[in-house]
Specification:
With 314 residues, the chain is mainly alpha-helical. The protein is built from 16 helices and 3 strands. Helix 1 packs antiparallel against helix 2 and helix 14 crosses helix 15. It is elongated, with a radius of gyration of 24 Å.
Length: 314
């Protein structure tokens, strides 16, 4: 196994030296021919393990499968060849391997992290949350760097699908994550602040940090949840009725960033109903929203369970 790790490190070094010695002619990412070649060797090692026919399971090479998959996934992510990860997952699902929980904990955590990340980047949020939650639950308490990697997508997922904010104690353990998400989290409490949320997303440094970590779309997808909170507060604290005039919603939203036009407000409310954030229906003729008498604002986890691939359909 160490040979494969050393081979990958040598490939990275060779590509770095090659890129430094050859003047760049474009702004695109430099080619990584050595790492691409290493990926092919890693794939051969994976095939040798997953297809091992040794009748004795105790001495089978299958026990090295998930360790090699971890190196292979890391390499594919570096090459931005994510579709190749899907090929590996298909091969794993078809192979007669021992159950995943029979493998070492480190292998399980790494595998769940990468499968969760693949789901996350594909905006398949429900299975992403499940895999990343399992990785977080099994990750060693002293593995701070690994825990931080897991939390990068897990924090917005917990908010999107379960409505759970990270605790101050948790963020204090990970200052980088606190710096990354504090502009976003500050727009959620004590009450939803769409102006602050929009300003945070428009901040170039914040936007760039989220894009680099692949979490921009998940954070941006929180906007309809903020809108739902505004409508919910309006209905519960101000109107105290299941029949809500769109003009009242427009007034409430215009105070905190959202659109001025009545048609836009009607579209926003209709979108919340269509996505399952609000139970009820719209009356275009009367310019009114009629809420369900039962559970008009279902828990986010129920919205996620009813949707396909997560709360947000983008």
């Amino acid at each position: 196994m160490q040979i494969l790790l050393d081979l990958r490190q040598l490939a990275l070094l060779a590509d770095r030296v090659t890129a430094a010695s050859e003047p760049s002619t474009s702004t695109s990412r430099p080619a990584q021919p050595h790492l691409e070649s290493t990926a092919r060797h890693l794939n051969k090692a994976f095939t040798a393990c997953v297809a091992d026919r040794n009748p004795s399971l105790l001495t089978s090479r299958k026990w090295a499968t998930y360790r090699i998959v971890a190196i292979l996934f890391r390499t594919y992510f570096r090459l931005r060849a994510l579709p190749l990860c899907r090929n590996v997952l298909r091969a794993l699902s078809a192979a007669p391997l021992p159950p995943l929980d029979h493998f070492p904990r480190a292998d399980r955590v790494t595998f769940r992290y990468y499968t969760g990340l693949l789901h996350f980047l594909a905006q398949d949020y429900a299975p992403a949350l499940q895999d990343l939650s399992e990785a977080w639950g099994e990750c060693h308490a002293g593995a701070i760097k690994q825990q931080e990697l897991i939390l990068v997508p897990l924090i917005p997922l917990e908010l999107l699908l379960r409505g759970r904010r990270p605790s101050k104690v948790l963020l204090a353990r990970f200052p980088k994550l606190e710096a990354l998400y504090s502009p976003f989290l500050s727009s959620l409490a004590p009450k939803p602040d769409l102006r602050r949320f929009a300003a945070a997303l428009a901040e170039p440094s914040f936007e760039r940090a989220l894009v680099v970590r692949g979490t921009y779309l998940a954070v941006e997808a929180f906007r309809p949840i903020l809108l739902r909170q505004v409508v919910r507060r309006l209905c519960a604290q101000v109107l105290k009725s299941t029949r809500v005039k769109l003009a009242d919603v427009q007034t409430a939203l215009s105070e905190i960033e959202a659109g001025d036009a009545a048609a836009e407000v009607e579209w926003l409310v209709g979108s919340l109903i269509a996505r399952g954030f609000v139970k009820g229906y719209l009356s275009h003729e009367r310019q009114m929203m009629v809420l369900s008498n039962v559970n008009a604002f279902p828990p986010l986890k129920d919205v996620a369970a009813a949707g396909s691939g997560g709360v947000v359909g983008i």
